[in-house]
Amino acid sequence: MKIWPILAACGAVALAVPAIAQDGYIIQLLNIAILNAIVVIGLNFVTGWTGQINFGQAAFYGLGAYTTAIATKAGLPWITTPFLSALVVMAASLMLGLPTMRLRTYYLAMTTIGFGEIIRLIIVHWEPVTGGTSGLRAIPGISIFGFGPQGQVQHYYLLIAILALAILIAARIRHSTLGRAMIATKDSEIAAEQSGVDTVRTKLLAFMIGAVYAGLAGCLYASSIRFISPDSFSSIQAILLMTMLIVGGMGSIFGCVIGALALTILPEALRFLGQWYLVLYGLGVIGVIVLAPGGLASLASLLPLRRASVN
Amino acid sequence: MGQLIVNGLALGSIYALVALGLLLIFNTVQIVNFAQGQLLMLGAFIGISCAVTHELPVAAAWAITMVAMALVGIVFMVLVYFPLRGRPAFLVILTTIAMGIVLENLALIIWGPLPVSLPSPIHGPPLRFAGVVISMHQLFIFCTLAVILLLQFLLLTKTRFGILMQATAQDLHTARLVGISVNRTIAVAFAFGAVLSGIAGLLVAPIFLAEPTMGGSLGLKGFVVSVIGGFGNLPGAVIGGLFLGLIETFGARYISSNFRDAYAFIVMIAVLIAWPRGLFGEKSSEKV
């Protein structure tokens, strides 16, 4: 199998990064990129594999983060928060998903945008609990029975390990019955129904798994960055997550990670462009969708083909 | 109470105009343009550039804006629609969103982030009617909506162009086979759609101030209206728009103004749960 050397190389690079980049700012940026990658892998279940548009992913990310922040600030031990966050986002995704999973493209896009806006408005206006627009500060860090990562480098290694686990679980689900049902639903709902796939159930499950990925990433975000505000989970963020998925390559886990890394780091690297960055970002997204519909991941898979044709 | 109804209907008329622009494009190419709000913003700012910066008469500013918006619509079609013909709907959704981001930030670079006001094309003392005050601008909004609605209805049902549009929407390839210039029809639809959102922008700017980020929420309201009324449904778009304007105004007055923007979405989700294709039904159905 040719994939193992590549995976090993990626792993080695990922582990070596903190040794090369001593700068705390860069590590912090990478930590956010890793969290985004987990959220985008979650989005990939819904959009990449099941073919359903979802602009609510940022809201689930926010729900996880706010649940964790509010729970730990209220004095609950950290170990309970991943479970709490997962429960809250599962309940929310069921509430949104049960009635809306029968809707098609534009209707689904609008309901998920609407859901995100409603969650954001609640966060902004429920000030005594959520801190309103100024957000919540000094959130207690990760601590499992008194043990927890100290400093950004340790957080980085923890998050890399969790990302690896998230990738592994996603890959396992992709090749399970459920994963095949998702792909069938995307290709043709009618054909999938005819073959005995319960498409509504499949869509709902994909939606819930995606939400749990986002909720857990939110939980880690709150307790590793230690500061959250509504801006991090707005509809702009939801669109950004969707572009990470598309630019990286829909349906490819590798693409999700690449897309999240690229679109988290690029805005910082191109900060000198100011407002022009967002203009180029918009044009770049259109360019990728038009010229490389499979995203960056598809460019990588083109290479062997080219070589073969030369030979 | 009466005052709230008038204010709500004025707001709703603007939502209806945004939805009418969306509808023209949707009826021809089955695409929902998520940058419609940014086109509206562009219309408002072109009007401001003419009327405020260059001190042209407001009527001239309106004329220039409408011509400019028609061109913008065609450029928009070439950049966003042509390369994506026949691709999945959510890719089109994403390209139009990306185009919206481009327009919004170009506007921020060109016009800066500060809100600006545009004078109304007509002046005069407000009408008073049983304790209800109707400003001349509100009256103007109602008249504009009525005129555009009539024109659009005649255009879609009574003219050759409307029939060409319907043929293109039903089956692009067959339309081309029978000799319809499909591209020209689509270009006209995009141009008209952009002009309509430009007019909505010119109408909004005198009430709320114009700023580059104004498009996002107004555009979304246009979609909410389209969803409530059913995409591509002409009476649905107008009734949905007025209905939404009333809900927002009354909700802000009697429930909470903090959640003003949420009412639209709550109503929309409720409508969709009960009628998955909108209150008045979608005009076309999925092809197997």
Q: Quick check: average pLDDT of chain A? A: 87
Amount of helix of chain B: over 70%
Which residues of chain B form runs of ≥5 with pLDDT under 50? none
Mean pLDDT of chain B: 86
Oligomer: heterodimer
The helical percent of chain A reads: over 70%
- The run of helices and strands of chain A is HHHHHHHHHHHHHH
Can you tell me the residue ranges of chain A where pLDDT is under 50 for at least 5 consecutive residues? 305-311
Q: Biggest interface in this structure?
A: A-B, 38 and 44 residues
- Radius of gyration of chain A, Cα only, in angstroms? 19 Å
Number of continuous helical runs of chain A = 14
Structural notes for this entry:
The complex is a heterodimer of chains A (311) and B (288). Chain A has 311 residues and is mainly α. Chain A has 14 helices and no strands. In chain A, helix 3 (57-73) packs antiparallel against helix 4, helix 3 (57-73) packs parallel to helix 5 and helix 4 (81-100) packs antiparallel against helix 10 (199-225). The two termini of chain A are 21 Å apart. Mean pLDDT of chain A is 87; it is low at 305-311. Chain B has one domain (2-214). Chain B is 72% helix and 2% strand. Chain B has helices spanning 2-29, 36-53, 58-81, 89-111, 136-158, 160-170, 172-177, 182-204, 215-229, 234-254, 260-274; strands at 127-129, 132-134. Chain B has a two-stranded antiparallel ribbon. The N and C termini of chain B lie far apart (49 Å). Classes of the chains: A mainly alpha (311), B mainly alpha (288). At the A-B interface, helix 5, helix 11 and helix 13 of A face helix 4, helix 9 and helix 11 of B.
